[in-house]
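User: For my dataset I need records formatted as: sequence, then structure tokens, nothing else. Please produce one.
Assistant:
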Amino acid sequence: MTATTDTLPATAKHRGWAEWLDRQSGPVMVMPAVIVLLCFAIFPLLISAYLSLSRFALAPGGFTLKFIGLVNYRKLLTGSQQYHLLGKFGDMGVLQWGLLALIAAGLLLILARYLLRGRATVLGTLGRIISIALAFGLATVAVATFAPGGVPGTAINTLLYVIIGVAVQFGLGLGLALLCGQPIRARNFFRVLFFIPLMVTPVGIAYTFRMLADMQKGPFAPLLRTFGVTEWSWANEAWSARLMVLIGDTWQWTPFMFIVLLAAIENQSRDQIEAARLDGASGFQIFRDITWPAIAPVAATIVLIRLIEAFKIIDLPNVLTGGGPGLATESMTLHSFIAWRTQDLGGSAAVGYMLLFISTIACVSFFNFVVRPARRFEQ
């Protein structure tokens, strides 16, 4: 009788643990993988953060790391590396100051509208102030470096790739998706054809465009010679070199926009479209009132994904131009890579963290200002 009484609490306790494990089986099974991923993600972040605050130097038998605080960041923003990151500021005239005033007024208007809605929170206000301050700072650098006598640095080059590249890719992808969503001949063939560039590696695309754009031996060289163009080289001019990088990046990433937008277009309600056509609505009216509200959440989400990826561009400018001429096509990622290759690990980590800060603020702002409002179409 005593043995049975002593066994009951142990059995109940074992049953309690079994029930708890059964209820928590999902988190328990996933936790080891989460811990491993966090270790692989957090450890490099912590080490690179320490590197950005240190000076790396080779020494007999190894290397030394000396803590120097924010010196690497000061060099990038106001010191010897300012020209590399921010560029050379030109002569600001009335046009440049007027443009900055318009940008400042627009940003302040966005903040005022948020505050006057009556639903402002401390965290939301602080986030918008940070976003607006960063946007105005980058706008000031862009206007100053594009002024007469100015030279853009790697930060502005990266923003050009992100803003112009993603906008063009989205426009082309949306147009191709709308076209292939129509009942046209061989549309399945075109769907596969438009998707092919996404399956090619960025380095392969870079070498392909490097060969295609060769003005001396490339496939288009005879055509150019026919028009009397024999001495011109796109790689020697800043804007033509940037344009070539943008063309290669657009050729690679437009299929991503195309395939996702096509799936969203084909997923929309056909009954509404047929009803609109019976009522005499034009194609533009159908797109504006039916198609766009249906695909807006998906469109905003894929643009956000593409923004995150665009900030990391390195393959195309590295292979096509090596970042040149000068710094004309060098991105922040390539800037960090070049610093790392020259054993400036602290400067490389500092550039990486500045890119992390800019891209995080930009993507979070895009999510709050574009993605979340777009999702309201679904409600």
